[in-house]
Amino acid sequence: MKPTTLAALLLLIPGALQAQDLADYDYENLAFRGVGLDYGYIWPTRVRATPLFSMRFDLGYLGPAVRIVPTIGYWSSEFRHAELARLANRLARLPVLQQQGVEITAEDLGTVHWSDISLGVDAQYVWTTPLDVLTFVGVNAGLHALNGRGDAIAGTFVEDLLDSTAAGVAFMAGAEYELASRLRVYGEMRYSLVSDVRYPGIRLGAVLMLPSARSSEQSGGK
Question: pTM, whole model, 2 decimals?
Answer without folding.
Answer: 0.82
